[in-house]
Amino acid sequence: MDTPVGSLTLSAGSSDPTLVPTNNIVFGGSGSNRTVTVTPAVGQSGTATISVTVDDGQLSASTNFVLTVSASFVGTRSITNSAAITIPSQGAGTPYPSTISVSGMGGNVSNVTVTLRGLTHSWGDDIDVLLVGPGGQKVTLMSDAGTGPTASGANLTFSDGAAGMLPQTGSLVSGTYRPTDYAPTDTYPSPAPTGPYGTNLTAFNGTAPNGTWSVYVVDDGAGDQGSFAGGWSVSITTAGAAASLVAGPPALVWIENPPKITSITFDHGTIQLIVNGEVGLRYALEASRDLVNWTKLAVQDNTTGSVVFSDRPTTNAIRFYRAVSTAK
Predict the structure, then answer these.
(1) Which of 179, 202, 240, 327 could form a disulfide with 107 if both were Cys (CB 3.0 to 4.6 A apart)?
(2) What are the φ and ψ backbone dihedral angles of 203, each rounded to 5 degrees?
């Protein structure tokens, strides 16, 4: 007799209970449509094999899949490219762009600050600096600010939370400023993206932090030059989920309605069995003398909802039959 689907017992196991406690494997759904939800322990990372077993009290079947939990850092991380950016008397700086590669951060960006390190220049108004994020968002950090020589080795930090902007006239000195863009509107040579450009670092909020962050430096007036001798740094704060899950199949457990032998007839030594089940599946007819050792007799695809099997035993011994699903 076939066990009703609703009466089957489901159980699960984890090869790494520290990463995935057994109580964190939860079954949902009902009948022949069941799901399994796996939740890793907080703060853990690694790989675990998750096993799922179906039991009717006499027989059982199991499957398993591999779950990989990759921990990512959520919070604030500062990264520096200390290579100097040389600013010519006119044109693009070297390198152009100067880049920082970010990886291993989880969540989405919630705050960005940038520091341009070691600025020395004979005419600050000439300097234009553009920040571009991994997703293509673009923000002017400074443009056409100051007159005359800058302070020597000035460190300029840009934050939306700063009290004020860089001055339009006078020397540029170390401090924290809001992104500053005075007229006229500036353009940047390729490969910098075209405008318009924002002046709020919140343009990066909600984006993915990982990837290449780029700073494009241009001198737009002839006759003066300088450098950011200490390169630049970016400080990124993220918020949100701290782990990503990668599960091998099957992440969804589907339990089919089992095939049923609905008719057995005997005619001149031939036994005919009709098996009903789900269309599209492949069924095997198996026979046994002791309900322990089973021999596969035949295999057929169920294309109509029922399959007819025939068997012609060569002895008069007791013979048991069962129909089972088999892989195509």
Answers:
(1) 240
(2) -60, -25
